[in-house]
């Protein structure tokens, strides 16, 4: 299989992390979003939405949206729970990641890290801080109760939220006041086959 992405993007990195954790053989194809490579005619034929990550299967089928790719790749592995409620809890956290976490933390990081915090977007960057900290507080509350977001073992929920949480400081979100999140980050980083952003 082929995976199109940019490992500096949290949404792409979480796919790269999962492939390492469960040892999935694949070809990684770097895509430069700042050079508009996702808008090329050849890429849009693969994904009309013009976004990464994108999974291309051996039979020529494509799958987009990071959490859909994650859930597809964990199928049949130790990361896929057999319990329907547990699976639904994983999806609950993944929806939280896309609607309550990523729009604040990832966007603030993009403005600061990728764009260099231009004056024209400083107000937007500052406006993202409150929502980002609200999301981190929700995670902190859960992680004071359980070592991982859904119980006692690493799941796709953790990988989904790890992608941008571990680089949240690059968007202005210092994690000093979130000790449970910090301990959770260390637990994930100590997992066999863990890989960081190169």
What's the total helix number? 7
- The CATH architecture classification of the largest domain is Up-down Bundle
Largest sheet: number of strands, sense, barrel closure: 4 strands, mixed
Helix content: 40-55%
Oligomer classification: single chain
Mean pLDDT: 95
* Overall strand count: 4
Radius of gyration, in angstroms, nearest whole number: 17 Å
Secondary-structure class:
alpha+beta
Q: What name does the CATH topology of the largest domain carry?
A: Glutathione S-transferase Yfyf (Class Pi), Chain A, domain 2
**Within the largest sheet, what's the order of strands?**
2-1-3-4
Distance between the termini: 21 Å
In total, the number of domains comes to: 2
Unreliable stretches = none
Dominant shape: globular
Question: What is the helix/strand order?
Answer: EHEHEEHHHHH
* Proportion of residues in extended strands: 5-15%
What is the CATH C-level name of the largest domain?
A: Mainly Alpha
Walkthrough of the structure:
The chain is an alpha+beta fold and 198 residues long. The chain folds into two domains: 2-74, Glutaredoxin (3-Layer(aba) Sandwich); 84-189, Glutathione S-transferase Yfyf (Class Pi), Chain A, domain 2 (Up-down Bundle), CATH 1.20.1050.10. The protein has seven helices and four strands; from the N terminus they run βαβαββααααα. Strands 2-1-3-4 form a four-stranded mixed β-sheet, with helices on one face. Strand 1 (2-5), helix 1 and strand 2 (27-30) form a beta-alpha-beta unit. Helix 4 (84-114) packs antiparallel against helix 5 and helix 5 (122-143) crosses helix 7. The longest helix is centred in the middle third of the chain and has 31 residues, at 84-114. The mean pLDDT is 95.
């Amino acid at each position: 299989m082929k995976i199109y992405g940019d490992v500096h993007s949290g949404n792409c990195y979480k796919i790269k992390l999962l492939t390492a954790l469960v040892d999935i053989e694949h070809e990684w194809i770097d895509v430069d979003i700042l050079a508009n490579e996702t808008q090329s005619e050849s890429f849009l034929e693969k994904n009309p939405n013009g976004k990464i990550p994108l999974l291309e299967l051996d039979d020529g089928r494509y799958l987009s949206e990071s959490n859909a790719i994650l859930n597809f790749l964990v199928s049949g592995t130790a990361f896929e729970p057999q319990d329907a409620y547990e699976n639904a809890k994983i999806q609950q956290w993944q929806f939280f990641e896309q609607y309550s976490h990523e729009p604040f933390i990832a966007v603030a990081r993009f403005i600061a890290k990728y764009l260099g915090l231009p004056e024209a977007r400083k107000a937007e960057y500052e406006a993202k801080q409150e929502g980002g900290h609200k999301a981190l507080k929700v995670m902190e509350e859960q992680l004071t109760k359980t070592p991982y977001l859904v119980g006692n073992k690493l799941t796709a929920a953790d990988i989904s939220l790890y992608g941008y949480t571990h680089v949240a400081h690059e968007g202005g979100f210092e994690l000093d006041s979130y000790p449970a999140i910090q301990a959770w980050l260390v637990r994930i980083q100590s997992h066999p086959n863990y890989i960081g952003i190169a």
